[in-house]
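Milestone M4 deliverable, item 7.
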Amino acid sequence: MGVVLIQGREDRLTPLVLAKDYFDKVRSNGKVFVSIDGGHFACFTHGSQFIAALRKAVAPLHAA
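Output delivered:
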């Protein structure tokens, strides 16, 4: 099982550095960290970047 964390670079509620620190502590085979533009709701405000990150990070997990 893999872990994919997509994080807004300007997120004030969950700052990028804290999200990355958490991600680095996660133990998982096949983990991916992606930062995109935007804040806490980056998946909505920067939808095209979010979809691109999903396609790049999640599609290979599905294919496997």
